[in-house]
Amino acid sequence: MIFKFACLVLAAVFVFAPITRALAGDASSDEASAPTDATSLNNQGLRFALAKNYVDAIESFTRAVALNPNFAAAHINLGATFYKLEQFDNAVAAFQHALRLKPANPALLKAYADACYHAGRFEASIESYTQAAHLAPNDVTLMSNLGMAYHAAADYKRAAETFKGVLRLRPDHLEALNNLGATYCSMRRFKDAVACLEKVIKLNPKWAHGHNNLGVALNGMGRKRAALAAYREAARIAPEWSVPHYNVGMIAFALGEKEVAIEQYRLLKTTDDALAKKLYGEIYSSYVINASGDNARLQTSSGLTIVERKVPLSSFDQ
Fold first, then answer.
1. I need a labelling partner for 234 at 20 to 30 A (CA). Which of 1, 38, 135, 318 fits?
2. Model pTM?
3. Are 238 and 206 in contact (CB under 8 A)?
């Protein structure tokens, strides 16, 4: 069986510290040995960053590390600023410099791993998360992010094992339970996925991601009507979120409800043009919509791909 319709959401829990002195860890001890000018530039950069003047913040942090290459706090703050701007390759480079100075700092290892993940460097991300996990074995956010990295690298078995580890520590960890269900979907273990995702909905019936992913799992089992109901509930809870609308459109077409599919396409054109085009490409490749709304025969395509979004920090399996 080829599964065509799913936009499966992995709920990311990337928790990244705000750009403050706390972000720099033991910055006070660094500042004691750092040149005064570098310290002043780092502090200036912090003020710029807190004021959301990130361009000037980057300039200040860059000048600070140029004056004192061993100033770990400034490297960390530079990386955090790049991360805030979603310049993930630059964030990776800055955190790498900091790690040379503080290689056993779990928070810094996690920050570097987060940046690697969003830069698409999944193997480096896994390595750094694993190192951090050895130093902070009970950090469930860290473990959950490691599971995300395994999933992104298509190592679904290790992803599932990692999410199970989170749930042993925190049985009510909503994101890990959701992500385990999503991983089971990627492994086509749809019955196990449904069991996980029904627990997600029981924990939080107003969380659209859980309903959307339940729809994916139900559709994988061939329960298309139940899947459509789950997608509709996700769209009702989060009407501004385009993914469940895409899924409603896809499965409605599969069920012969062409007008519903057209309605979702038109809605997406006003909210998410990229996903509207994807919907068009998936089910409207031989479909003609003219000025009067007449239509020809719909035709689906197949395939399973991964699409990532930066905000919110989530991954989508399709």
1. 1
2. 0.78
3. no
Measure the CA angle with vertex 303, ends 302 and 308; round to 5°. Answer: 130
Number of DSSP helices (H) and strands (E) in the chain, helices first: 16, 3
Cis peptide, bond prior to residue 18, ω within 30 of zero:
no
Helices 224-237, 242-254: axis angle to 10 degrees equals 150
Residue 287's CB is within 10 A of a number of other CB atoms, namely 17
What single letter denotes the amino acid at residue 281? G
Q: What is the mean pLDDT of residues 132-137?
A: 94
Buried b (16+ CB within 10 A) or exposed e, 31-51: beebeeebbbbbbbbbebbee
DSSP 121: -
Q: Count CB atoms within 10 A of the CB of residue 29.
A: 11
Structure tokens at 103: 């290689």
CB 38 within 8 A of CB 61: no
CATH numbers and ranges of domains, the chain: 8-25+105-317 (1.25.40.10)
Q: Which residue, among 317, 244, 242, has the nearest Cα to 272 in the 3D structure?
A: 242
**Residue 272 to residue 280: CA distance in whole angstroms:** 12
pLDDT tens digit string along 63-121? Answer: 999 999 999 999 999 999 999 999 999 999 999 999 999 999 999 999 999 999 999 99
CB 151 within 8 A of CB 316: no
| Distance separating the N- and C-terminal Cα atoms of the chain | 15
Does the pLDDT at position 26 exceed 80?
Answer: no
Interval 238-259 mean pLDDT:
92
